[in-house]
Design goal:
mainly alpha
């Protein structure tokens, strides 16, 4: 037949037999998208006077914007003189390798961070600091970063007396002379989240870096960890013999 062949379609007559009939191929010749075209849907609903019936508009965009702004102002006025953002939250790294290079706000400060900043955890809740007893510090860097965040917050904190009388003034309250014309903190995070410098400029490799080997350092650390128990046992036995 050659390199090509075709499917013929023979229409059987009234007295012909169906033996010689072949069926033509139907549909597309390949793994294509099944056609599902809605020709009657013109612009929204249909052509004519009912056109654009289902077109979604956004005519209240300006009104919604104004309403959100008014709600923010009302919330800030209700919370005055406290920060409009609510409680102070820590800076944490999101989980997984995809996002762990970024920084975001966490749920609350750990007990170790409050202890390092010398803030009692029961007192922290009364001065606008969020506390999360479940969170743990996995590295010293994040611990110190949140401790500095707490210290900066405490340095700018103004504590109002609970009542207007002189007897209601307690230890640690701000003098009344410093509480006149106090501006409210309306920032989204109270203290802005620092933006880490992700890009590192290219530089020449130093001689110390050439001499050191990251593989050897890791290998040495693994070996020391593996034989730590045997070394401690040997040292203990040697100390017992000397005594």
């Amino acid at each position: 037949f050659g390199s090509r062949y075709y499917l013929s379609r023979q229409v059987a007559g009234p007295g012909s037999s169906p033996v010689g009939r072949t069926v033509a191929a139907m549909g597309h010749g390949g793994n294509n998208v099944i056609p599902n075209v809605h020709f009657r849907k013109v612009n929204g609903c249909q052509a004519g006077r009912k056109n654009r019936v289902f077109m979604r508009t956004w005519l209240d965009q300006a009104g919604r914007k104004k309403r959100r702004a008014n709600n923010r102002k009302a919330k800030a006025a209700k919370l005055f003189p406290r920060p409009a953002a609510g409680l102070l939250r820590p800076v944490v790294h999101p989980p997984t390798q995809r996002y762990n290079m970024k920084l975001r706000l966490g749920k609350g400060f750990t007990l170790d961070e409050l202890k390092e900043a010398k803030i009692p955890r029961k007192f922290a809740k009364t001065i606008g600091i969020s506390v999360d007893h479940r969170r743990r510090n996995r590295c010293t860097e994040s611990l110190q970063a949140n401790v500095e965040r707490l210290k900066l917050y405490m340095s700018k904190l103004l504590l109002f007396p609970k009542k207007s009388g002189t007897k209601s003034v307690k230890k640690g309250d701000t003098p009344r002379s410093e509480l006149k014309n106090v501006a409210q903190n309306t920032l989204k995070e109270i203290i802005p989240v620092p933006k880490p410098q992700l890009c590192i400029k290219a530089r020449a490799i130093t001689s110390d870096e050439k001499e050191k080997s990251a593989y050897k350092a890791l290998k040495k650390a693994r070996t020391n960890k593996h034989y730590l128990g045997a070394k401690m046992k040997k040292a203990k036995e040697a100390a017992a013999k000397e005594s």
